[in-house]
Design brief:
Blueprint: E1 3-5, H1 6-13, H2 17-25, E2 33-35, E3 38-42, H3 58-62, H4 86-92, H5 97-109, H6 113-120, H7 129-145, H8 149-164, H9 171-186, H10 199-202, H11 208-224, H12 228-241, H13 247-263, H14 267-281, H15 288-293, H16 300-308, H17 310-335, H18 345-355, H19 360-367, H20 371-385
Antiparallel strand pairs: 1-3, 2-3
Length: 399
Amino acid sequence: MEYITARDAAQKWNISERLVQKYCAMGRIEGAKKFGASWGIPAGTVKPKDPRKAQTDTKIRTQKRQSVYYPGLMPLMNTAFEPGKCLEFIHDMADGPQKRIAMAEYYYFSGQPEKAVRETELFLTGADRDIQLSACLIYAYANLSVGKIQQARYALALVSEMFVASTKKQPEMRAALSFISSAAAVLLHLPLPQGLPPMQEFLPMLPMGIRMFALYVTAHYTYLQKDYQKSLGIVEATLGMQMEVYPIPCIYLHLVAVMDYMSLKQTDKAKQHLLAAWELARPDDLIEGFGEHHGLLGGMLEAVIKPEYPEDFKRIIAITYRFSAGWRKIHNPDTGHDVADNLTTTEFAASMLAARGWTNKEISNHMNISVNTVKWHITNAMQKLNIGSRQDLKKYMLL
């Protein structure tokens, strides 16, 4: 019998290798055989079904697989659409504000911020608070990419005002406001708003797709606290609990796992998660997240995406430059941090790895460039930052 490894199965099934091993140990993969410390899985084996599916009602269990849509907050993020059919799903929605917000989400996550701005600006005020909150979050981040910082600040201020005034709101609305407020702060690496309730208080009130993205925000925040193992635990638990694949949250969860594994110098596992994110994103061109996270991915895009997808890589880097310019204009004045804003993406990637303690040889092997080229990029970065020691790079990196 032909066997595949647990790692191969994890990539095929879009789950973590640890979860595959757990399934094997639990006897949930028929024919799995242990070879020493690792498992062999019969080739052609399909992913085990989540036992929780059996607990869903008969109607859902007997339906053909289809998109699950919850009206309200961030409708596209909150939908388990089939990869490659994102626009088809939006087209099939009923005309109205939710469809327009879903389209704005698509524009934003596919790297079209100008269109996202136009689609959301009419919904920054209005009676439907879910639509307004969705519009504010998309409008704020889209304006960062088009260089309109005052407009971005205006949308963030609206969210802040609504959150401050939300203490007497219904719990569900308070949960939505808490989610949007935490996402706006954490992804900009800004302090969390005062009075933000613990995640466990509002998480159960969020529908599954939004809940998964909220857990991505939590994992990202935990990464920023340098607790990489805990962040990975959040990612793996979240990916393991889903009954269907929600592409947008999953892309972002895989990307934060890349950040964690690169910080732990486990490049093979980082690559697995990057490819899992890419497999979900590419069919619908949902590449914005790769550009947003470029500086935190430790040269992984250069090592994995650039050789195989050079044109996509160029587009991602264009997104990186646009988004990071606006990101730093918000971040640096508000936090007082001196995050570098005049380095090329390659200089930044090499310098971030150097600041994390990687040797020139390790950086060279990872980024597929020569040791001398690594030295050249780091020297250029240090000259631009007017510093004389690699240790000083930490003050200017997103560590």
